[in-house]
Amino acid sequence: MTFFRLLALVLTTGCSFAAPLTFDLGQGLAYHRAHSLPADLPGSSPTRPQPLVLDLRYAVGDADAATALSAWLKFRAAPRTPVFLLANSATSPALRAAFADRQHTAGLIVLGLAGSDFSPDIALKTTPDAERLAYDALTDASALARLINPPITKPRNDEARLVADYLAGRTSEPPATDPAPTSTAPTPTPPPPTDPVLQRAVHLHRSLLALKRL
Question: Do 108 and 82 contact (CB within 8 A), yes or no?
């Protein structure tokens, strides 16, 4: 690729797509979302490289971009500074081809929602619609915290159910309870979106830290 062709590609993609997103995920892990390659590839760090979540879900790129991505991964991914690459079937086929044969790329782990034409190293259970909703919800640091640290809620059993379970086998029938009042509360709002793919990448990083592998 000539310099002028590369420059034209960068300018074109820069005008057509949103700027890449970068966040600090804590404990030495960074997040970088690329929309269009090669323009959005992370630059080389002036200091020691760190583990990175590279989000290529819905990213676009042609064969030249795939070549750049392949070279970047071989240079950047290492056992002590792994790259957790997030992708899906909507990632450009050319880009997916760049990391399809990754058995010799140490430190590269691909995560995502599996599809007929995409097989990640770690497949997460979600739906394309839910994944897109979570992806679009990531706009700032506060949204990031909600997506990877959803509030833990436990199902709430009513008093009659608790008493019946506790006395099971000790009485012939559960004690009588008053009928539940008719609810007048508004329909609860749906839970906020969560991103299980990004969440798993963070959990893997924390596990490797605990095992002193990083």
Answer: yes
Which residue type sits at 211?
L
Q: How far apart are the first and last CA of the chain?
A: 36
* Amino acid, res. 128: P
Among positive and negative, which fits the CA dihedral 86, 90, 92, 96? positive
Give the bridge partners for 60, in sequence order. 36
pTM of the model: 0.76
User: What is the CATH number that goes with domain 20-150+191-210?
Assistant: 3.90.226
Backbone angles phi, psi at 175, to 5 degrees: -65, 150
CB atoms within 10 A of CB 192: 13
**Cα 147-208-38 angle, rounded to 5 deg:** 60
CB 30 within 8 A of CB 61: no
> In which residue are the tokens 């906020």 written?
192
Nearest Cα to Cα of residue 82 among 40, 52, 116: 52
Which is nearest to 136 in space by CA: 15, 18, 31? 18
Measured on CA atoms in the order 113, 116, 122, 124, is the torsion positive or negative?
A: positive
Tell me: the pLDDT tens digits for 98-147? 999 888 888 999 999 999 999 999 999 999 999 999 999 999 888 888 89
pLDDT tens figures, 70-102: 999 999 999 999 999 999 999 999 999 999 988
